[in-house]
Amino acid sequence: MNLDCFFRPKAIAVIGASNDPLKLGYEVFKNLRKYKGGKVYPVNVKEEEVQGVKAYRNVKDIPDEVDLAIIVVPKNFVKGTVVDCGEKGVKGAVIITAGFGEVDEEGKKEERELVEIAHSYGMRLIGPNCVGVMNTLNDMNATFIMDAKKGDIAFVSQSGALGAGIVYKTVKEGIGFSKFVSVGNMADLDFAELMEYLAETEEDKAIALYIEGIRDGRKFIEVAKRVTKKKPVIALKAGRSESGAKAASSHTGSLAGSWKIYEAAFKQSGVLIAETIDEMLSMARAFTQPLPRGRRVAIMTNAGGPGVLTADQIDRRGLRLAELEEKTIEELRSFLPPMAAVKNPVDMIASARGEDYYRTAKALLQDKNVDMLISICVVPTFAGMTPTEHAEGVVKAVKEVNNGKPVLGLFMAGYVSEKAKEILEANGIPSYERPEDVAAGAHALVEFAKARGVLEE
Amino acid sequence: MNLDCFFRPKAIAVIGASNDPLKLGYEVFKNLRKYKGGKVYPVNVKEEEVQGVKAYRNVKDIPDEVDLAIIVVPKNFVKGTVVDCGEKGVKGAVIITAGFGEVDEEGKKEERELVEIAHSYGMRLIGPNCVGVMNTLNDMNATFIMDAKKGDIAFVSQSGALGAGIVYKTVKEGIGFSKFVSVGNMADLDFAELMEYLAETEEDKAIALYIEGIRDGRKFIEVAKRVTKKKPVIALKAGRSESGAKAASSHTGSLAGSWKIYEAAFKQSGVLIAETIDEMLSMARAFTQPLPRGRRVAIMTNAGGPGVLTADQIDRRGLRLAELEEKTIEELRSFLPPMAAVKNPVDMIASARGEDYYRTAKALLQDKNVDMLISICVVPTFAGMTPTEHAEGVVKAVKEVNNGKPVLGLFMAGYVSEKAKEILEANGIPSYERPEDVAAGAHALVEFAKARGVLEE
């Protein structure tokens, strides 16, 4: 299904765009003014201008074709607005306004009516009761929250607030998204249809789903089976535990369903399962890398402890430490200091410079017993060193060897690591901050490789 | 054992203090110039002045009693320096210099000799091969790394680099420490003796240990048993898995030992076990709060999803959702909007203001079925709101009710939450950013309450 109208519209109408900074329609229009893919028109029944831009009374008054409408009008005006959009020939509408199916049965009925109206005009809906939609590729932020960092993950969230929280948290952590979709009540478009669209895009390397409850399980499985043949899908399901399921049922009004059923459905359709938000993000981020041919990991580090903790975490996930070839060990011994450990994990010790990272990464990537590489850098403890040279060393090695083995980075020193992480990320190498996160990423690559049949074992 | 000379010295000598920014002795002296608890003297064999301060050729030339020496001289001069310190009457020395027991058997012998010399003068040693010691209470940073944020956790790390990485990472995350001790090779002082000292201090609410290998297991258990009667001890043991243990043995040169043995030792001595760095920190941070009487948790939130995820996480750890009293439900219904969920988790929905947080927290804390409270705030989605009013509401309720039930905060929106987190923390309420972290904190409180015999069940 082509949903380009939602993600690459030529013209967007913000219906309910406002001059009042306390209204959501203010934020949405403000955010969309940075849109690079086309025109953005404010619609407001009372104002001549919104934020200095000529406003229209009705979407139908806009002297241009409009493919996407963002609806942030009060609830009583939503139905009329959907009709107006239909008459205007709008192809997609995101209904941010709340107060529908999440409230009561009457609201559910109203929601269904909105969908019927939309479909009668050939229009599709996202929402109602959502935060909106972002496409960072063309700077489209059709939400009332801050811009996500640019990245490679398409993130679809059934909770608007949680989705917003995750966008905010990842800005701090330097984790980026290609798209963010808050699906709200999913009156029309749901996980299945969005996944199907996202499977075909170039820019979305992985699809991450935050799920509270799926209504049409059969449809989800059927679509997910097709999608996961092309692209990894990672799901975090809230309400896995008994307490959580109870909590979820009171939140969404629908039964969250037994975790066992969801788990079976995910496994059957090749959807990778995450237990926490950070695990979901860590898994999804790995897919800028090629798929590994096996589960043998080489670890290189400038400090022993982090190497050991990472070994623990990969072991816990069923990956294993590669046994290095004798010639690799000899090569490492030829330039690393005598105190360095030339077994896997390779501990280059604190004196390691960028050149050591480069030569070690190169030797490990060329080792035929190594399927993937994790490069760790804690804070360099020798004055005058910054982690950036370490990142540059790894990037140089990867470019030179270029043999399709995945490489993941682990930079564990907060602000001190930020620049180094950016260097790796700019070269498509995901860079993590915690041993369990880099292991989750490595594990996700192996699981997807296995599902795709490229794992040689 | 009184180790005040290491943490509250009246005078410190930095032996190897330097004017060369590329030397560790430069950083150590620079960091210590902010020390509030006493005088700091640079010692340098060549320089008249170090960083503008009159320097001494030898520690013995200092015209003042010196209780602590930080030794950062080249390896060949360490032994002589220790002798000088002994003759001067120094009570404690931190040997940052590396190249001893971590290298080879010869180094181990040299290390033992240093200890013998020190003991012959009644002096104790930390190190060698360490990053140093911090006490944030009196701004003592006797390390070559950046200042830790002030907090309530005493953190003892067997890996210097990892310890440094954790200090750096927590500065970014807003997590604080009361003390940081990098124990290095533990030639003299070890985990047991440090724990014993830290058990008696006012400012250290919990003791967190990063352990690679313990030499004297019997001593550790014997001391830990006593310490955990007074204060919680949380241990993260690297090398739990087979791969990790192999990695650890190559790193420390000593056998890491079977995890089963460590696990039994920790359990037997009441030490709480963490699986990751973040779990260790999350557990330790909870102990600014009183201990709960039971494992029944009330959750309040302004968004459903995070409440469900948190319910999942507390369930996973054997805690459970409290069943609210009827009168609590009635009270909540009296002021929360109709769409709010007045069951546990209480979903006050996105419109919740500070007043709602205040009244809800108050009602939940007064409920006799509630043993502890988790207050969640995602990003407030109504324009004009900031999470600070939510934090203030919770603080006000806790102060008014004041009935000894622990309260933990969960603010899930990165930079947007920082001010709110600070408000909670300034009032002794730990504030987390992830559901699994707040659940780890709650669980640690319950486990410690159980061990202390205050859990009524």
UniProtKB/TrEMBL annotation, chains A, B:
Q: Which UniProt keywords apply?
A: ATP-binding, Ligase, Nucleotide-binding
- InterPro entries, alphabetized: Acyl-CoA_Synth/Transferase, CoA-bd, Ligase_CoA_dom, NAD(P)-bd_dom_sf, Succ_CoA_lig_flav_dom, Succinyl-CoA_synth-like
Domain (CoA-binding) ranges: 6-100
**Catalysed reaction per UniProt?**
acetate + ATP + CoA = acetyl-CoA + ADP + phosphate
Q: Give the enzyme's EC designation.
A: 6.2.1.13
Q: Name one GO molecular function term.
A: ATP binding
- SMART domains annotated for this entry? CoA_binding
* Keyword ATP-binding attached: yes
Descriptive protein name: acetate--CoA ligase (ADP-forming)
